[in-house]
Amino acid sequence: MNTNLKALTVAAIAYALIGSIVMAQNVEGVTVQATRILNTKTIDRSASGVPLIDISLSYGVSMAGLDLASHAGAMELEKRVHNAGIAACQEISRQYPEAIPSQSECAKSATDKAMVRVHELEAAADKKAAK
Known about the structure:
Radius of gyration: 18 Å
Number of strands: 2
Order of helices and strands: HEEHH
Strand order of the largest sheet: 1-2
Helix content: 55-70%
């Protein structure tokens, strides 16, 4: 079981990395990456105890059709990013209910990280509109 879980984790991370690369090539957007840690129980315990497995899931958020220089466009992108953070953490929770931190903390962390990029894009749009 532990080998299957490790393989699944590696596959999820690879999918997230490949997905974000493909997204970056197609359309400029924002990637929201949710990360949680899973405590697993093993039949054999090592000297260090229970292993921790990092589980990540990334969702691409499209900016298509949004004018980030407008308040409405900026708010819509922030809403999309927030919803993607919630969705990613809900999916991790569905598959791994015992993962930590909590689903709400996971969503806040994922959203906060992605908002750094959102604010950079908004600032660039404002600067471009001011010219």
